[in-house]
Amino acid sequence: MIIRVRTNIGIWRVTITSPPPSITTQTILDTIAQTRPHVVYEAPLSLDPKCSEPIDTSRPLCEQHGVQMRDGLMIYCKVDSSTCAENTVGSNNGSTNDTNMSTTGAASEPSSSTITKRIIAKDGTIKLIHTTDTDPTNNKSELGFRKGLMPLRDIKKSWTLNEFTAMDDKYNFKIKRQESSFVGVEGLHLESGAVESFQNYLRRFQFRQQRFGYLYGRFVEEEEE
Predict the structure, then answer these.
(1) Which of 13, 74, 149, 198 could bridge to 144 as Cys pair (CB 3.0-4.6 Å)?
(2) SS (H, E, C) the chain
(3) What's the whole-model pTM score?
């Protein structure tokens, strides 16, 4: 069963293998701790976005008022963003890679500073990586305000908001509305019966099975008046 936990830094998808009637808040916390062992909660698991209705820890989740046990159930909490670095298991050699790098040595050196980078993994999860500016694994491109570019302080010592906005806009791509149709005056027609049949098949499995379909069609030349 997948439970979504909305935090102040993003949504965590927690996969729990226990039977739904036995799932408690401790089950969810233990599962989160497997990948984020150092997370610190600023507000407990709750049923509302404001975290004003904490979940009763003495009762299973299915017995909580207003909770419907289903895949995608959303609960809420607030965490300390600096403690949420995720431990991931490498798929190639089976070794464990802790993205929460140790900064013990860096803390004893006054010349180094801790840098927290937020990255988005391939599965859509947000990871916080702690490192230092003296870490030999870092390079200028990794510390840049955009990947592949130098840090702002290396480009220019002082910046105004207009200067930064003008430079940042060079790397922003905006999608504009299409001005004119390229499919003719009559537009595009879709056979709704075939689409409905495809969706009904997926509904039989509650959309838990992935399927794809090929679309076939033809172009009809417009008759000139």
Answers:
(1) 149
(2) CEEEEEECCEEEEEECCCCHHHCCHHHHHHHHHHHCCCCCEEEEEECCCCCCCECCCCCCHHHCCCCCCCCCEEEEEEECHHHCCCEEECCCCCCEEECECCCHHHHCCCCCCEEEEEEECCCCCEEEEEEECCCCCCCHHHHCCCCCCCCHHHHCCCCCHHHHHHHHHHHCCCCCCCCCCCCCCCCCCCCHHHHHHHHHHHHCCCCCCCCCCCCCCCCCCCCCC
(3) 0.40
